[in-house]
Amino acid sequence: MSTRFRRHRTKIIPAISTVVMAILLTGCLGNEEDWHGKNISGLMPELEFDLINSQGDPVSSNDYSGRVRMLFFGFTSCPDVCPTTLQKLNQVTSGLSPELQEEVLTLFVSVDPQRDNPERLAEYVDFFGDDIVGLTGEELQLRELAKRYRTTFGYEEPGPDGNYAVSHSSAIYVFDREGNPRLLIRPDLSGEEIRHDLVALIQEGS
What we know:
Blueprint: E1 12-13, H1 17-26, E2 38-39, E3 50-53, E4 58-60, E5 68-74, H2 81-94, H3 98-101, E6 104-110, H4 118-128, E7 132-136, H5 139-148, E8 153-155, E9 166-169, E10 172-175, E11 181-185, H6 191-202
Parallel strand pairs: 1-9, 5-6, 6-7
Antiparallel strand pairs: 2-11, 3-4, 3-7, 5-10, 8-9, 10-11
Helix pairs in contact: 2-6
InterPro entries: SCO1/SenC, Thioredoxin-like_sf, Thioredoxin_domain
Family: Belongs to the SCO1/2 family.
GO molecular function: metal ion binding
C-alpha cells in the first residue's frame, strides 16, 4: 500500500452487536447453514443514500441498483482494518468469473470528510480495484447513514501533527440487486466464505 496514506491508530466499534443480538433473539436467521454471513433480511431498511462519489458528483443508491452491493464504512487514513478489508473484498470479487464480477460492487463510505476529499478518495479506492466505489458527504449525512444501519463512528483528539484516529464499525453490509438488506459479513470470514455468499445472492432468481 502506498506510503502516502499515513498510518494512524484506529479504534473499531464492535460490529453492530445490537443487531446481531436481535437476530439471535428473534430467530430470524432462516436456514443459517445456507450462509456464512449473518442473515439480516427484514431487520434493516433497504439501501438508501444521497452522497458524493470520488469524482465529486452527487449520487444516490439508485445509481448503483441492479447489482449485489457490499457497503463498508471507513476512512483512507485507516492503518489496518480498512485496507485489509478492501484488499480481501477485491480478492473475493476477482476470484469470480468475469460474468459474475459485473454483478457485484463494493461501496466504500468514508466517514472522514475533512481529510477524504474526492481526489484522495479516488486515489485510495483505485488502489484496491476497479469494482470499488468511493463515497462520502457532509458529516451529518454520514451520521444519518450510519444510524440507518445501526452503527456509528467518532473522531479522537488530534495529535501534535494534527492527525487523528477515527473509530468505526468493521461490519460489511450486503444488499441484493433490489437494495434489500441480506447479510452482515464479519471481516474475519475467509474470502471463500464471502465468495460463496455472493454467488448465492447473484444466482437468486436466475
